[in-house]
Amino acid sequence: MVAHDPPASADWAARPRYAPSDFITLLWRERYLMISVFLLIFIAGLGFAFTLKKAYPAHSSLLIQLGQEYVYEPLAGDAARGAVPDVNSVVQSETAILSSEPLREMTIRKVGLGIIYPDLAAKYDAASVQEKQAIMAKAVEGMGKGLKIEAAPDNPVVNLTFEHEDPVVAARVLNTLLEQYLLYRRSVLAQPSSTALDRQRVMFQGKLDEADAAYQQFLVTNDIGDFNAQKTSLTQLQAQAEAQSNAVQAQLQDRQGRLAALQQQMAGVQPEIGLYRDTDTTASAKLAALKLEREDKLGRYLPDSQTIKDIDAQIAQLEQGVQAGRTLTEGPKRYGVNPVYQTAQTEQIQLTAEVAALRQSKAEYDRQVQEANDRLLKLVALEPQFQALSRDRDLLQTNVRDYSVKATQDEAVRQIASESSDNIRIVERASAPSTGKSLRKPVMILALLFAGFAALCAGLVRMFLRPGLPTAASASRTLDLPILGMASVKPR
């Protein structure tokens, strides 16, 4: 026989052994404890579940696309200009803005703390400045718990949900959140960089003024109007003067050669020549007179008369003299200036004047070439300094112009961004939900499950903590002895 409760003085070293069938019997013994624990926990869970209020979720969605504010514009240089992020990065950025605490606080102040959280509003009115900050932080935190933002990868649509006890307030808060978001994101993404650009522009403008002063002082000191134009003009002038000098040199050599040849030719030319010479025609006239006289006397004398014969003899004698040239004598002669000599002398005078003029022109052109060359050598010596001043001046002008353009563009981008948000589209505005959600049923189910589990654990703990061998089968397995009989223990 085995008793349920052995004496306290007995030394039970053996550990009870249980079978699955023993658990049912032993747990049934602890049913009152398990029912008490179950009812206590389940009733507490039901009480908590009935305290939960129904919440109405308002839904809205946004379509987020790439905008101008995400295009990278460096403040200096052109490195990575125009780089844009991917869709996921843009959506994550906009989601972070949507879930930011400043945006929720702006929404609460826009709608009104008393409308969203009346309990906190009552405390807020009578609180101090520090307490008001704490209450507002609590309201912002509470709104964050009720706000749910969902975004899927590679999807530009963002879904927003806000839960509140009042469906109208839930829709109003969510719509106000979207409106404030469109304003708030502009101040976040389009931060004005014109201040930094203006500082840089003013700094470079000061340096440019100094460079301009040094540049102008350099020009005034060296008597230069336009360095490049003057250098080009001097180069052209030098080239023209050299060309003209060479041309004059060629003309001078030609004139000198002609003058030397003319002077050599004039040595063999007489300055004066005979212009004409008269011939004595007395014999011819006398012969003609004799012939006229013969013809006249033939009218009075016969041809064979002595008179006629005398005249014929005279005529014959005179003709023989004329034919023989014995009757020719030199007449008066006239001399004058030789025209060839006069022409040569005139040409000599002209060539001598041309040679003198060409020599003077050659000397003048040589002087101009030398003067231009000296000026060019001076400009060449000054060119490194001029190039350095011009390079600094041009670089500063470029920087001032670039920063002015960037500041203008930045201002234009900020104005455009402040007036429109074309890359953000509200796909669906929130409307007052007709059905609400409550956690009463899930809490009741959880309370039921937890109460059952706690009751089972309490029964198991109580079962294992009871002393002795609880059943005959357990005693037989523990002592490895057969049980012949069992008697119940009567209470003392």
TrEMBL record:
Q: Which of UniProt's keywords are assigned here?
A: Coiled coil, Membrane, Transmembrane, Transmembrane helix
Q: Does the keyword Coiled coil apply?
A: yes
TM regions (residue ranges): 32-52, 443-465
User: What InterPro entries does the entry give?
Assistant: Bact_polysacc_biosynth/exp
Going by the entry's taxonomy, the superkingdom of the source organism is recorded as Bacteria
What does the record list as coiled-coil region(s)? 355-382
Q: What PANTHER family does the record tag this protein with? A: FERRIC ENTEROBACTIN TRANSPORT PROTEIN FEPE, TYROSINE-PROTEIN KINASE
The identity of this protein, by name, is Uncharacterized protein involved in exopolysaccharide biosynthesis
Please name the source species: Caulobacter ginsengisoli
